[in-house]
Amino acid sequence: MSILNALRSDSYVDISQYRDQHFKGNRYEQEKLLKLSCSLYVGNLSFYTTEEQVYELFSKSGDVKRIVMGLDKVKKTACGFCFVEYYTRADSEHAMRFVNGTRLDDRIIRTDWDAGFKEGRQYGRGKSGGQVRDEYRQDYDPARGGYGKIIKK
Amino acid sequence: MSRRRHSDENDGGQPHKRRRTSEPIEIEDRLESLICRVGEKSTSSLESNLEGLAGVLEADLPNYKNKILRILCTVARLLPEKLTVYSTLVGLLNARNYNFGGEFVESMIRQLKETLKLNLYNEALYLVRFLSDLVNCHVIAAPSMVAMFENFVSVVQEEDGPQVRCDWYVYAVLSSLPWVGKELYEKKDVEMERILNQIESYLKRRQKIHVPMLQVWTAEKPHPQEEYLDCLFAQVQKMKKDRWQERHILRPYIAFDSVLCEALQHNLPPFTPPPHSEDAVYPMPKVVFRMFDYTDAPEGPVMPGSHSVERFVIEENLHYIIKSHWRERKTCAAQLLSYPGKNKIPLNYHIVEVIFGELFQLPQPPHIDVMYTTLLIELCKLQPGSLPQVLAQATEMMYTRLDTMNTTCIDRFLNWFSHHLSNFQFRWSWDDWSDCLTQDLDKPKPKFVREVLEKSMRLSYHQRIVDIVPANFSALIPTNPIFIYKYMDESSSSLPGYPVTIAISNAIINRSSNDEILTILKDVPNPNQEDDDDEGDSFNPLKIDVFLQTLLHMAAKSFSHSFSALAKFHEVLKILTDSDEGKLHILRVVYEAWRNHPQMISVLIDKMIRTQIVDCAAVANWIFSPDMAHDFTRFYVWEILHSTVRKMNKHVQKIQKELETAKEKLEKQHSRRKDSGDEEEDKNSDEEDGPLEEQIERLQEKVESAQSEQKNLFLVIFQRFIMMLTEHLVRCETGGVDFNTPWYKNCIERLQQIFLMHHQTIQQYMVTLENLLFTAELDHHILTVYRQFCALQM
Description:
Chain B: Belongs to the NCBP1 family. By secondary structure, chain A is an alpha+beta fold.
C-alpha cells in the first residue's frame, strides 16, 4: 500500500544523479546495480585521512567488508576519496542515512552509492593524477594539496 | 561544462502537474495524500482542514468507501502521534454517516484481532488507544469501551500464560486513560474504580525480578528508574486525584462538540482477548528513563513532574515522532522541534531525555546507535543557541553518575560522546573533569575518560588527542598505536628464533612459496618438545611467533597491508594453527605485537575468524585467559567478544536462510508438478528432486553443525564467567573483603550484557544452560543474573 511509502520516506538512501562515465554497461544496468549495491563512494576526504579512521567511522553503521583508499594515479598517494564496502545492503543504507554529511577528520564527507569496485577505480581521474574536482577548484584547501591544479599552473 | 548527466527523458519520473482525471487509481492516491497530510503546511486552522476533508470524504463514500476505510485504519495503526486528528475526522464522518462509523469500528476490531495474532503488540496498542479516543468523539459508547477494558483486565486472572501477557493488557488499559479516563469515569465510575483496583492488586503481586537488569542507573537518587507499569499507574492515580484533568493532549474534537454530540454512537462488539499461544511474543518489560526534573531547566516553562500524566503523553509522542522519521534525520529533528504545545514545556530537555532514554534502553535501543548521534547533531544545528547547552548539561550529569551507571550504558555513552566530539573538533571543557585524575584508573570516571580518548583517537590520531586535553590528563591519554616488534634488531638476537625471522623476511620479500616458508620454519626450535621423534608438525608456539611477528611487522603500515598479508599466507597460517592451542597462540601473538593498537587487534581477529584461521570459541577462550586478565575491563575487549558472537549468529542465520530457500524451492517444484497433472510423476520426481533433496540434506547438516558451534560458544563464555566470578566471590569471602569492587561490577554487568545483547539466540539454549551451568548450586549473585534474564519473557 503506498501509504506505507508516504509514511516511510527514506530519501537519504536514494541514488543520486551521478553516473560513472567509465561504467561498462548502459544506464539501466548501472542504476540496477546502484539500487542493490553494498558499496559506497566516499568523497571530500582529507589527503591525510587514514584507512583506520574510515574503518572506525563506517563501522558504526555495520560490519565493514573492505575499504579501498583512493590514490593519485601518478604519485600513488591518497587523493581524498575511498570506497567502503559492507556485507549487507542494510548496513550500507545506514551509512547513507547516518554517516553521509557528517564529519570525518573535521571535514563533512559525502557518501554515494557505487556500482561496485573494479580494479583501476581506485585512481583519480584528473589530468594531474588526483581527482577531477581538484583540477579545477579555485579555493585553497590545505587538506587537499592547497590550491586546485588550475591555479597552480 | 557540467559533467553531470541528466536523467533520461520519459524514465517514468513524476509528472509536473497532476491532472484531474476520473482515473480511480489517481483518486485513490489523492485520498491517501489528503488523509495522511491533513493539517500539515496549511494556512487555515486544523479544524477547518478537518471540516473540509470530512466533506470531501463524505462525498467520496459512495464510490471509495472501502479505500477510505483502509486508509483510516492504517493511519490509526501507524500514526499514533496524530491520533486525535484522525479520531476527530472519524467522529465527523460518523456524524454525517452513521453506517460508515459502524463499519469503521468493525474494521478496527478486525485489525486489532489481526495485529494481536501477528505479535504486533505496539500497533495493537495504538488501535486500542484510538478506539478509546473515539469515545471522546461520540463514535463509540462509553459503556462498551469500559466492557472491553474489563475483558482486558480479566486476563490477569488467567491460570496460564506468562506475566508479560497480563502486562500488555494492563498497559493497554492504563495507557488509554490519559485520553479517555475523564469520559469513562463520568459515565461508569463504579466499573472503572473496580478496574483500577484490579490493576492495583495485580501490580502489587506481580514479579519484578527483571527491573535491576533493565535500569540504566542503579541508584534511586536523583531520579528513581521506575518499572514502566508502576510509573504509569502512579501517573494515572495522580490524574484521578486531579479529577482526570489532562491539559496537554491536543483535542480537535472539542471544537466540534456541538456537531459530534448529535451523532449516534456505536457499541463495541464484545471483545475477548485471544488465548495465549506458544508462539506469542509479548513485548518485554521496560524501565522508564529519567534524567531531568523541573530543577534542571533553569528558566522558561516548568517540566511536568515524573508522575504527571503530561510527562507520559509528551514522552510517548516524542517516541512516536522518532519512530516515524528516524530514517530522515533532518525531518526527524524538525518534527521534534515543532512539537505542538512546545511553548508550555522545556522541549529541548524532553527531547534530550527521550533520545538518551532510547539510546540507553536495555536490552537494545529501538534503532541503531549511530542514528541518535546524527539526530542530536541535526538538532544542534537547528537550535544552536540552546540545544548544545542542554546536551552539555546532560553529558555532565551522566559523567557525575558514572558510578551507578550500567556498564552496557557506559559503553553506549562513551561511543556516543567520542563520535559527537569528533564532529565538533573535540571541543570540551576537560578541566571540569579533572576530579577523575586523583582517582584510581580502574574507577568509573577515569576509566570513562580513558576510553573516550581512545575512541576519539580512532577517529583522529594520537597527536590530536595529546593536543586537545590539558597536560595533567597525560595518564589518561591512549598509547601511541605502534607495532611492537620483538625481533627488532641486534639487541634481540639472543632470542630463540631470531635468525629464522631474518630468513622469513627475506623469503617474503623474495616471494617464496608457502612450502618454502614452511621449510624455513622447520628450523624453529620447539620449546614444548621433549623428544625429537616429531617431524615438527605439532603445535610449536615459537614457529607461530616467529612467522606472524615478522609478517605483521612487514605489513604494519595499514589495515589493507595486514589483510593482504593474512590472505597471501593463509595456507601457512592454517597449517600453523591447526590445533586449538595453535589458534589460541596466534591470538596471543597478535595481541603482543599490536597491544598499543586495539583497533588493529580487533580488525585482525575479525579477518582471522572470517577466513577460518581461528574460530569463535578460540577468541572467547583467549579473552577469558589469564593473559588477558589485565585488559579484561577494557572496552575494546568486549567490542571484540560481541563482534565475535554476532558473527557466529549471522553465520547460523545465513545457513538457515539457505536451507529455507532450498526447502521452498522443493515445495514449489512439488506443487508445480501437481498442478501440471503429470502422469509420469513418479519417474520425473526422483530425477527432478534428487539434487535439491541432496542439497537440503547437506544444508541441514551444515545448520546443525553451525548451531552446535554456536551453542558451544555460549557455553564457553558462560562457563568462563561463572569460573571467574565464583573465584572472586570465594576469595573475597574467605578474605573478609567486600566483593563489590569496580572489577566485580564490570564483570557481572558484562555477564548481563551477554544475556541482553544476544537474548533471542540464547533463548534457544535455555534448557542446556539451566541444566549444565545455571544450577541451584551456583553463588546466588550469579544465579540472580540468570533469573533476571529469564524474567524478561515470563
